[in-house]
Amino acid sequence: MSVVTPIDQPEPKGRDKLNRWLFRAALAVLAVGTVVFLYAVFHDSAAKGPLPTVTFANGQTKTPAVIDPGAREVAGKFILTAVARKNLASSWQLVHPTMKQGFTKAQWLKGDIPVQYFPVGKLEQVRFRVDEKMKDGVVLEVALVPNPGAGFDPMVFFLGLKKVGSGDHVRWLVDYWMPHWNPAVPKNPS
């Protein structure tokens, strides 16, 4: 009886070579796809210089949305207070009445609020991207990225802001805070 050692194994033929090549190609595609996905989700979308105009195939043009700096400031303060459950008295002033509806200020100050908590103190970065812009409001997509080793994953939320008041008394208030959620796609049973 002859024993085949790894050194004496015959050279893979036809189908085995193809399978190995396809496996390596699939790994390469997966690696590139992962890098592209991570870049798309977490790259710095802050504009540097004038925003470019996008021209579509039908000839229409569109300039990316720019938001009022006051709205961005309120969004940041909301995350550092209500989302972090710190200085909740300040967060009460940042929230639109529709979001506070059914809550007393005493409940709010105890942290019993309609805002999902996130440990903001362990964040490496927060990224905003305009999801929708209306005449008197804006919806931001907010990525909260923890420090490496923080023990939890990044999360993406939608944050809605509404402009209230008029003239010199215009201000922005948060009226929406919800995690970005994608439903599970059922597998084909066949």
Stretches where pLDDT is under 50 for at least 5 consecutive residues are 45-51
CATH topology of the largest domain: Nuclear Transport Factor 2, Chain: A
Gross morphology: elongated
Query: Could you say which structural class the secondary elements and strand pairing correspond to?
Result: alpha+beta
- Measured by DSSP, the beta-strand proportion falls in 15-25%
How would you portray this structure in words?
By secondary structure, the protein is α+β, with helices and mostly antiparallel strands. β5 and β6 form a beta hairpin. The two termini are 46 Å apart. It has a four-stranded antiparallel β-sheet. The chain has five helices and six strands. It folds into two domains: 31 residues; 113 residues, Nuclear Transport Factor 2, Chain: A, CATH 3.10.450.
Topology, element by element:
Blueprint (H helix, E strand, L loop, with lengths): L13 H29 L11 E2 L5 E2 L6 H15 L4 H7 L2 H4 L4 H5 L13 E12 L2 E10 L8 E10 L6 E9 L11
Antiparallel strand pairs: 1-2, 3-4, 4-5, 5-6
Helix pairs in contact: 2-3
Kindly summarize this structure in a few lines.
By secondary structure, this protein is an alpha+beta fold.
